[in-house]
Amino acid sequence: MKAIEENYFSDYLKESSKEVLWIDIEDVGDYQGEVFALGRFKDQFIVFAGYYGSCSGCGAWGEGGEPRDLTDVLASSAGFWNAEGAISHFFSLLPDEKKKDRDRRKQLGVECAELLEKEKNGHRSAPADLVAVDSCRTV
Q1: Cβ contact 94:28 at 8 Å
Q2: DSSP of 91-117, one letter per residue?
Q3: Residues 6+ apart with CB under 8 A from 62
Q4: Cα torsion for 95, 97, 103, 105, to the nearest 10°?
Q5: How many CB atoms lie within 10 A of CB 27?
Q6: d(CA 67, CA 11)
Q7: pLDDT tens per residue, range 24-68
Q8: Coil, strand, or helix at residue 52?
Q9: How far apart are CA 107 and CA 117, in angstroms?
Q10: Among 17, 63, 109, 117, which residue has the fewest nearby CB atoms (within 10 Å)?
Q11: What is the pLDDT of residues 65-103, one digit of tens each?
Q12: pLDDT for 125-137, tens place per residue?
């Protein structure tokens, strides 16, 4: 599993949802922007979509606009029973220049397949199992 690029927003997301095994987190923005993430929670893949503002009172993360716990994260996530649907949804949210990254899409497919294979063999994937990573509604 690749290491998730460390940034301010991925730290907030991982801290507020330690029960989720995060596979990929993308921060799209600068002073204002969006955060998209692909993860595994219980028996579903989830895709988180959140936004952040640049000032207090306008959704700034770190000033009350960030997800505070698993409930907040799941409320802003879509759940998928299969990896293909989750990966497709994750890429549909990304900016156009990132939607075409076939290598990244292929790598996510491989990582999700490896997770499913481990689960099939009785190994329950959990965030603590991965050194690189510190972890709805059904679609």
Answers
A1: yes
A2: HHHS-HHHHT-HHHHHHHHHHHHHHHH
A3: 8, 12
A4: 20
A5: 17
A6: 11
A7: 998 887 777 888 999 999 889 999 998 887 766 666 666 666 788
A8: strand
A9: 15
A10: 117
A11: 678 889 989 998 999 989 999 999 999 999 888 888 889
A12: 555 433 233 333 3
| DSSP code for 61 | T
Helical packing angle, 102-120 and 83-93, nearest 10°: 150
- Measured in residues, the chain has a length of 139
29: tokens are 């923005």
Q: Looking at the whole model, is its pTM more than 0.70?
A: yes
* 66-71: Cβ within 8 A, 24+ apart: 66/12, 66/16, 67/12, 67/13, 67/16, 67/17, 68/16, 69/16, 69/17, 70/16, 70/17, 70/18, 70/19, 70/20
Cα–Cα distances in Å, from 14 out to 28, 57, 121, 122, 131?
A: 17, 23, 26, 25, 14
How far is 31 from 58, CA to CA, in rounded Å?
A: 11
Coil/strand/helix, residue 9 = helix
* Partners of residue 137 on adjacent β-strands: 78
Q: Which long-range contacts (CB under 8 A, 24 or more apart) does 92-100 make?
A: 93/34, 93/36, 93/47, 93/49, 94/26, 94/28, 94/36, 95/28, 98/26, 98/28
